Amino acid sequence: MAEAPGPGRLSLYKAVGSAPWKEVFRQGCLERMRNSRDRLLNRYRQAGGNMPRRSQNTLLVQEVMEEEWSALQSVDSCPEVLTQLEELLDVAELEEIQQEMADQERCILREYEKSLQFDEKCLSVMLAEWEANPLICPVCTKSNVSVSGGVVACPCGLYLPSHSPELTVQKLRACLEDSVSEHSAHCPHTPAFSVAAGPEETPSLLMSCVACDTWAVIL
Protein backbone atom coordinates (compact mmCIF):
# COMPACT_ATOMS: atom_id res chain seq x y z
CA MET A 1 0.00 0.00 0.00
CA ALA A 2 1.34 3.43 -0.92
CA GLU A 3 1.99 5.59 2.07
CA ALA A 4 0.00 8.78 2.39
CA PRO A 5 1.68 12.08 1.54
CA GLY A 6 3.11 13.94 4.50
CA PRO A 7 1.55 17.17 5.81
CA GLY A 8 4.10 19.30 3.96
CA ARG A 9 3.42 17.79 0.57
CA LEU A 10 -0.31 17.61 1.22
CA SER A 11 -0.43 21.39 1.60
CA LEU A 12 1.42 21.75 -1.70
CA TYR A 13 -0.99 19.41 -3.46
CA LYS A 14 -3.95 21.48 -2.27
CA ALA A 15 -2.46 24.81 -3.30
CA VAL A 16 -4.03 24.56 -6.72
CA GLY A 17 -2.89 27.24 -9.13
CA SER A 18 0.21 28.09 -7.12
CA ALA A 19 2.18 24.81 -6.98
CA PRO A 20 4.20 23.57 -10.00
CA TRP A 21 2.78 20.04 -10.14
CA LYS A 22 5.57 18.37 -12.01
CA GLU A 23 8.06 19.75 -9.48
CA VAL A 24 5.82 18.63 -6.61
CA PHE A 25 5.79 15.10 -8.03
CA ARG A 26 9.53 15.16 -8.60
CA GLN A 27 10.31 16.37 -5.07
CA GLY A 28 7.84 13.86 -3.64
CA CYS A 29 9.56 11.00 -5.47
CA LEU A 30 13.02 12.07 -4.31
CA GLU A 31 11.85 12.47 -0.70
CA ARG A 32 10.16 9.07 -0.78
CA MET A 33 13.38 7.50 -2.11
CA ARG A 34 15.40 9.09 0.71
CA ASN A 35 12.90 7.78 3.24
CA SER A 36 13.09 4.32 1.65
CA ARG A 37 16.84 3.94 2.24
CA ASP A 38 16.45 0.90 4.55
CA ARG A 39 14.12 -0.79 2.07
CA LEU A 40 16.57 -0.08 -0.76
CA LEU A 41 19.52 -1.51 1.18
CA ASN A 42 17.53 -4.64 2.06
CA ARG A 43 16.69 -5.07 -1.64
CA TYR A 44 20.39 -4.52 -2.46
CA ARG A 45 21.48 -7.20 0.03
CA GLN A 46 18.85 -9.62 -1.30
CA ALA A 47 20.32 -9.07 -4.77
CA GLY A 48 23.66 -10.29 -3.45
CA GLY A 49 25.20 -6.87 -3.00
CA ASN A 50 25.32 -6.22 -6.73
CA MET A 51 24.65 -2.65 -7.86
CA PRO A 52 22.73 -2.34 -11.14
CA ARG A 53 25.33 -1.65 -13.83
CA ARG A 54 23.03 -0.03 -16.40
CA SER A 55 21.11 3.17 -15.80
CA GLN A 56 17.78 1.59 -16.78
CA ASN A 57 18.24 -1.24 -14.26
CA THR A 58 17.19 -0.11 -10.79
CA LEU A 59 16.14 -1.76 -7.56
CA LEU A 60 13.41 0.52 -6.24
CA VAL A 61 12.86 3.49 -8.57
CA GLN A 62 9.76 2.23 -10.40
CA GLU A 63 8.14 1.07 -7.18
CA VAL A 64 8.73 4.40 -5.42
CA MET A 65 7.42 6.40 -8.37
CA GLU A 66 4.24 4.32 -8.46
CA GLU A 67 3.75 4.85 -4.72
CA GLU A 68 4.15 8.61 -5.07
CA TRP A 69 1.82 8.70 -8.07
CA SER A 70 -0.82 6.82 -6.05
CA ALA A 71 -0.36 9.30 -3.19
CA LEU A 72 -0.89 12.19 -5.59
CA GLN A 73 -4.03 10.64 -7.04
CA SER A 74 -5.45 10.10 -3.55
CA VAL A 75 -5.59 13.88 -3.04
CA ASP A 76 -8.96 14.25 -4.70
CA SER A 77 -10.62 16.85 -2.49
CA CYS A 78 -10.60 19.32 -5.37
CA PRO A 79 -11.51 18.46 -9.01
CA GLU A 80 -8.87 20.87 -10.25
CA VAL A 81 -6.19 18.69 -8.66
CA LEU A 82 -7.09 15.66 -10.75
CA THR A 83 -7.19 17.82 -13.88
CA GLN A 84 -3.68 19.13 -13.23
CA LEU A 85 -2.40 15.64 -12.39
CA GLU A 86 -3.28 14.50 -15.90
CA GLU A 87 -0.74 17.01 -17.22
CA LEU A 88 2.00 14.95 -15.53
CA LEU A 89 1.52 12.14 -18.01
CA ASP A 90 4.30 13.41 -20.24
CA VAL A 91 6.55 10.42 -20.97
CA ALA A 92 9.71 12.49 -21.54
CA GLU A 93 9.30 14.36 -18.25
CA LEU A 94 8.54 11.18 -16.31
CA GLU A 95 11.64 9.56 -17.80
CA GLU A 96 13.66 12.57 -16.67
CA ILE A 97 12.36 12.18 -13.12
CA GLN A 98 13.03 8.44 -13.29
CA GLN A 99 16.63 9.06 -14.36
CA GLU A 100 17.16 11.52 -11.50
CA MET A 101 15.80 8.97 -9.04
CA ALA A 102 18.04 6.27 -10.53
CA ASP A 103 21.03 8.57 -9.94
CA GLN A 104 19.91 9.08 -6.33
CA GLU A 105 19.50 5.33 -5.85
CA ARG A 106 23.03 4.68 -7.11
CA CYS A 107 24.35 7.46 -4.85
CA ILE A 108 22.76 5.80 -1.79
CA LEU A 109 24.23 2.42 -2.77
CA ARG A 110 27.70 3.88 -3.41
CA GLU A 111 27.70 5.50 0.05
CA TYR A 112 26.66 2.18 1.58
CA GLU A 113 29.42 0.33 -0.27
CA LYS A 114 31.97 2.88 0.98
CA SER A 115 30.81 2.33 4.56
CA LEU A 116 31.21 -1.43 4.10
CA GLN A 117 34.74 -0.96 2.72
CA PHE A 118 35.61 1.24 5.71
CA ASP A 119 34.28 -1.39 8.15
CA GLU A 120 36.22 -4.13 6.34
CA LYS A 121 39.39 -2.04 6.59
CA CYS A 122 38.80 -1.47 10.32
CA LEU A 123 38.25 -5.20 10.79
CA SER A 124 41.47 -6.02 8.92
CA VAL A 125 43.43 -3.56 11.06
CA MET A 126 41.93 -5.02 14.23
CA LEU A 127 42.81 -8.59 13.23
CA ALA A 128 46.32 -7.53 12.19
CA GLU A 129 46.89 -5.92 15.58
CA TRP A 130 45.65 -9.01 17.37
CA GLU A 131 48.00 -11.21 15.37
CA ALA A 132 50.99 -9.17 16.55
CA ASN A 133 52.41 -9.57 20.04
CA PRO A 134 51.39 -8.41 22.56
CA LEU A 135 47.61 -8.78 22.39
CA ILE A 136 45.67 -5.50 22.02
CA CYS A 137 42.75 -5.08 24.43
CA PRO A 138 39.50 -5.73 22.54
CA VAL A 139 37.61 -3.24 24.71
CA CYS A 140 39.78 -0.09 24.49
CA THR A 141 41.75 -1.23 21.36
CA LYS A 142 44.73 0.81 22.61
CA SER A 143 46.54 -0.90 25.49
CA ASN A 144 47.93 -4.41 25.79
CA VAL A 145 46.15 -7.05 27.82
CA SER A 146 47.92 -9.44 30.13
CA VAL A 147 46.81 -12.94 31.08
CA SER A 148 48.12 -14.40 34.31
CA GLY A 149 46.64 -17.34 36.17
CA GLY A 150 43.68 -17.17 33.84
CA VAL A 151 42.94 -13.56 34.82
CA VAL A 152 42.66 -11.03 31.96
CA ALA A 153 43.62 -7.42 32.76
CA CYS A 154 44.29 -4.16 30.92
CA PRO A 155 45.39 -0.65 32.04
CA CYS A 156 42.09 0.66 30.67
CA GLY A 157 40.31 -1.00 33.59
CA LEU A 158 39.41 -4.32 32.01
CA TYR A 159 39.58 -7.05 34.64
CA LEU A 160 38.17 -10.53 34.11
CA PRO A 161 38.69 -12.92 37.03
CA SER A 162 39.73 -16.44 36.22
CA HIS A 163 37.27 -18.27 34.00
CA SER A 164 39.85 -20.95 33.31
CA PRO A 165 43.28 -21.32 34.94
CA GLU A 166 44.57 -22.68 31.61
CA LEU A 167 43.73 -19.45 29.75
CA THR A 168 46.72 -17.87 27.98
CA VAL A 169 47.26 -14.90 25.66
CA GLN A 170 47.42 -17.31 22.72
CA LYS A 171 44.12 -18.98 23.67
CA LEU A 172 42.43 -15.60 24.23
CA ARG A 173 43.70 -14.36 20.86
CA ALA A 174 42.37 -17.47 19.10
CA CYS A 175 39.02 -17.09 20.86
CA LEU A 176 38.70 -13.45 19.78
CA GLU A 177 39.74 -14.17 16.19
CA ASP A 178 37.28 -17.07 15.90
CA SER A 179 34.44 -14.93 17.27
CA VAL A 180 35.15 -12.02 14.92
CA SER A 181 35.51 -14.33 11.92
CA GLU A 182 32.24 -16.10 12.73
CA HIS A 183 30.47 -12.73 12.98
CA SER A 184 31.97 -11.41 9.74
CA ALA A 185 30.62 -14.46 7.91
CA HIS A 186 27.10 -13.03 8.16
CA CYS A 187 27.65 -9.32 8.88
CA PRO A 188 30.16 -6.92 7.24
CA HIS A 189 30.20 -4.46 10.16
CA THR A 190 32.83 -4.32 12.90
CA PRO A 191 31.67 -5.69 16.27
CA ALA A 192 32.45 -4.03 19.61
CA PHE A 193 33.59 -5.57 22.88
CA SER A 194 32.51 -4.73 26.41
CA VAL A 195 32.42 -6.15 29.93
CA ALA A 196 29.13 -6.92 31.64
CA ALA A 197 28.17 -8.49 34.96
CA GLY A 198 25.29 -8.57 37.39
CA PRO A 199 25.63 -7.52 41.06
CA GLU A 200 26.69 -11.02 42.13
CA GLU A 201 28.01 -12.37 38.86
CA THR A 202 31.53 -12.78 37.56
CA PRO A 203 32.29 -10.20 34.80
CA SER A 204 32.09 -11.53 31.26
CA LEU A 205 33.59 -10.30 28.00
CA LEU A 206 30.84 -9.66 25.43
CA MET A 207 30.99 -9.08 21.69
CA SER A 208 28.06 -7.16 20.19
CA CYS A 209 27.07 -5.56 16.90
CA VAL A 210 24.43 -2.83 16.58
CA ALA A 211 24.20 -3.37 12.82
CA CYS A 212 22.91 -6.95 12.99
CA ASP A 213 21.62 -6.73 16.58
CA THR A 214 23.58 -9.72 17.88
CA TRP A 215 25.78 -10.41 20.86
CA ALA A 216 27.87 -13.28 22.18
CA VAL A 217 29.71 -14.15 25.39
CA ILE A 218 33.43 -14.55 24.66
CA LEU A 219 34.70 -15.25 28.18
Structure report:
It is a single chain. Helix 2 packs across helix 4 (61-73), helix 2 (21-35) packs parallel to helix 6 and helix 3 packs across helix 6 (91-131). With 219 residues, the protein is mainly α. Mean pLDDT is 76; it is low at 1-19. The radius of gyration is 26 Å and the shape is elongated. The longest helix has 41 residues, at 91-131. Helices cover 51% and strands 11% of the residues.
Structural class: mainly alpha
Quaternary class: single chain
Number of helices: 7
* Overall body shape: elongated
Give the N-to-C terminal Cα separation.
47 Å
Strand order in the sheet with the most strands: 1-2-3
Main beta-sheet annotation = 3 strands, antiparallel
Please report which band the strand proportion falls in: under 5%, 5-15%, 15-25%, 25-35%, 35-45% or over 45%.
5-15%
Mean pLDDT: 76
Q: Tell me the number of strands.
A: 6
Element-level helix/strand string: HHHHHHEEEHEEE
Fraction of residues in helix: 40-55%
What is the CA-based Rg, rounded? Answer: 26 Å
Q: Low-confidence runs (pLDDT<50, min 5 residues)?
A: 1-19
Please render the helix and strand layout as text:
Elements lengths: L6 H8 L6 H15 L1 H10 L14 H13 L5 H8 L4 H41 L14 E3 L2 E3 L5 E2 L8 H16 L7 E5 L7 E6 L4 E4 L2
Antiparallel strand pairs: 1-2, 2-3, 4-5, 5-6
Helix pairs in contact: 2-4, 2-6, 3-6
What distinguishing features does this structure have?
disordered N terminus; elongated; mainly alpha; 219 residues; 11% strand; 6 strands; three-stranded antiparallel sheet; 7 helices
